[in-house]
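(Protein data)
===
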Amino acid sequence: MSWLPEDFVHPVHVPVPNTALHLRPIREADTAIDYPAVMGSRERLWEIFGPAWGWPPETMTYEEDRIDLLRHEKEIAAHQSFNYALLDEEETAIFGCVYIDPPERTGADGEVSWWVVDDLVGGEVERALDALVPQWIAADWPFQQPRYLGRDITWQDWLALPRAS
């Protein structure tokens, strides 16, 4: 059984209220704007995602990022997991990402996490994204028990949960 209904259609453009930004599924073609966003915030991102995902490694190359984005693009097309880029209107820069994944740990039917680039931490865009994501998940995704990693559960507590079967 899939983690999503067979007829589920994932959103392809999600405006972030009170900003000039939007979310859309990430693509391999975004590597040129993703790589500087990730590596420019790498130390903080490693503190968040490193223990759980081993990402982003200090030595990640542009080509490794491209391969990772191609994997994400294929997973999105197959509805295996989702990575949404936070983009400006012209899609010339990535300002963060939202991940929507099948549960790796027990007690949830979807696992959601997100980040913004260092320059936006603590600002209006981060607050807007923090407000949007749970509302968007509730409105547009078929989850009964979504888990917001690093928000409603710490990454350490999440890692301590039993693995989903």
Remarks:
- The chain has one domain: 20-159.
- The domain at 20-159 is CATH 3.40.630.30 (Aminopeptidase).
- The mean pLDDT is 97.
- The longest strand covers residues 94-101.
